[in-house]
Amino acid sequence: MAVAPLIFALLGDSPPGRGFLIDFSVALGFVGLSMIGLQFALVARFQSAAAPFGEDAVVQFHRQISYVATLFMLAHPALLLVQDISLIALFNPVTAPWRARFAVTSTICVLAIMITSIWRRRLRMRYEVWQGLHMLLSIASALFALAHIELVGHYVDTPWKRVLWVVMTAAFVGLIVWVRLVRPLRRLGRPWEVEQVTAERGATTTISLRPVGHDGFTFEPGQFGWITVGRSPFALTQHPFSFSSSAEADGRVQMSIRALGDFTSSVADLRPGTRAYLDGPHGVFSPDRNEGPGFVLIAGGVGISPVMSMLRTFADRDDRRPCHLFYASRTLEDTTFLEELRELQRRLDLTLVLVLEIPPRDWTGERGRIDQAVLGRWLPERYLRMQFFICGPPPMLDAMESTLAELGVPAAHVHTERFVFV
Length: 422
What we know:
six-stranded antiparallel beta sheet, elongated, Elongation Factor Tu (Ef-tu), domain 3, alpha/beta, Rossmann fold, 12 strands, single chain, six-stranded parallel beta sheet
């Protein structure tokens, strides 16, 4: 799909006197623009498209392929200058023709997207500000690039080429309309409201949401949704959180959110009755999609939320398959859901292994971090047949994937959830 524009852009007669480098630079520009346009499809949350990989994997691919698209777009003007240094006059914003101004502006928008995404924390930019800026700059970059192609005219100078470009442009605009208009309109007709706000251990708050005027939706344990609270569903900013409630609940859902940033720190101040909108369910991080004779659950910090959804669902279903939960926490006081986990040990075939970074003086359990030694002491003999679910900070996920590979766990049995969207 990324190289599709070349099929019609390079057919027919090329303008005379251009040379290989110019045509090659144009080809790279076309491919870069096509790849930028495809990014809107990658992040449009089409569940059927994301299902084979998981939405977190699709987002990681979106981040990685954007580097390649940016290099292609930068190579376009760079090769033009190699071919003819006099073309540097096209970069003068005062004297350059509008086709060149649009190209330069599009490139500046792409660079701004990359800078604000890579160095958001260093720039002390709030997530909500970044998300809105990211969307606006992405749309502007694509529109300015399309305007540049239209004004150059060399590759849209025949009726059939123009039709193909109109179709591609319509598809791009259609994606924007779908994401920013159609989906919010659908959510507008299916509101939710905050029913209860509960303080948990470890600076975590659980919000219970009930559907208003509709039956809600069903989800699989371990899935997540995007939530907008106290704002219109058309707001630029939405936040992804795992469901922590049982999938067998009666339409209501719960999200357990740890105070880690601007929005998450304000969740504890929410009041019952606050209007909310949910986009979901999303994700494939679920035992319902990865059946096995037993499960090994590895959680760190707030990564316990989707794991709680799994365990609560198992309890409601009276599912007695063995579960081994390795739960890393900084202190015993920070261990979210500790009391309920001990209660679930009586209802399920659950082995709970707490690993504390700073344990109390009389602590006799595991300490430090979850590593190969800890897993080796507690994993059952038949662990290679079990399904592994890991959720936590990115360094923990990386370490666990390497450790499980060293233990011989098949890659197809290892499932991770990475909430790193920036």
